[in-house]
Amino acid sequence: MHKLFQKSALVGAFVLAAGAAVAEYPEKPIEVIVGYSAGGGTDVMARTAAPFIEKYLGDGASLVVKNVPGASGQIGVTEVANADPDGYTLGTFNLPGMMARTIDREADYDRESFTYLANVVNDPNVIVTAKSSGLDTMDKLIAAAKADPGAITVGMSSLGGDDHFMLIKLEGLTESEFTIVPFKGSAPARTALMGGHVAMGILNISEVASFQEELNVLGVATPERSDFAPDLPTLQEQGYDVVNGSMRGFVAPAGLPDDVVAKLDAAFAQLASDPDFLQAMKDTANPVEVVRGDEFKALTSELYDLANQVWQETPWN
């Protein structure tokens, strides 16, 4: 009986120790990999959300953002997919771009490579032109593109992302042709545009909200005017039936332990209703749309199917 009691006590101690270990997550800094350069929309979203996620995780949690730009975000998200599923490596996740990476090239990840934590932002595209271009209306822009196919250069954060999808839709709708100049993120694309090195840019509203004096912002790709730029007409208002944007959120490697998923999910669940977070996102012109867990994964599959359809119908080099 004594030995049985000792054995039971030992088992109980292990159970208590395991419970204590779970309760202590996170025990060390959590790395958040951003697959784009600092200063772009994805980077701003991650850095704005990080302090709030730390607060919700509690226990002195610390999130450290690491920029890994290159290959249209593929390098960074691949690093996330291949990381240990222990909760200490998270990554930003862009839709439709990250799913397009698995269609337009060889990728070392797929839809099943991730634990889907939460989408946080739905950031619509905007069409902008350099002040020096003289193209200060949509009609002027499209007329110039039709008059000299390929002459108008378009700066964007990457190939295969929402910016590229937007251009594909615009070219198909208007029967026009542009020349793409991809960058390693939206911040360098915007800099090139302001310097007159490219004539036009397709960015997101959060990426141009503070630069409207330096750029011609021609229209936003939303069904209704954005609260972040109520004076900016939609493309639909101007006769161009295009709606498009970038969804940005957070994932972890597939196989994350259930207890870690639960704690992270509880943290993300608080984002949508935290007035301080909503104000911080408003200050950076980031439209909040929180979609968590299985719903986020389902949304990813839907956008993968859309990306695959676009690629099938519109070949590109």
The value of Rg in angstroms is 22 Å
Name of the top-level CATH class of the largest domain: Alpha Beta
Tally of domains: 2
Q: CATH topology of the largest domain, what is it called?
A: D-Maltodextrin-Binding Protein, domain 2
Mind summarizing the main beta sheet? Answer: 10 strands, mixed
Order of helices and strands: HEHEHEHEHEHEHEHEEHHEH
Determine the strand fraction and express it as a percent band: 15-25%
Please report the distance between the alpha carbons of the first and last residues: 76 Å
Structural shape: globular
SSE-based structural type: alpha/beta
Number of discrete helical segments = 11
Helical residue percent?
40-55%
Q: How many beta-strand elements?
A: 10
CATH homologous group name of the largest domain: Bordetella uptake gene, domain 1
CATH architecture of the largest domain: 3-Layer(aba) Sandwich
Q: How would you characterize this protein structure?
A:
With 317 residues, the chain is an alpha/beta fold. The chain has 2 domains: 2-122 and 246-313, D-Maltodextrin-Binding Protein, domain 2 (3-Layer(aba) Sandwich), CATH 3.40.190.150; 124-238, D-Maltodextrin-Binding Protein, domain 2. Helix content is 41%, strand content 21%. The protein has 11 helices and 10 strands. The protein has helices spanning 2-23, 41-57, 74-81, 97-100, 138-147, 162-174, 186-194, 205-208, 258-269, 275-283, 293-313; strands at 30-34, 63-67, 89-95, 114-130, 153-156, 179-182, 200-204, 215-220, 245-253, 288-292. Strands 1, 2, 3, 4, 5, 6, 7, 8, 9 and 10 form a 10-stranded mixed sheet that branches. Helix 6 (162-174) links the parallel strand 5 (153-156) and strand 6. The longest helix has 22 residues, at 2-23. The radius of gyration is 22 Å and the shape is globular. The model is unreliable at 1-22 (pLDDT under 50).
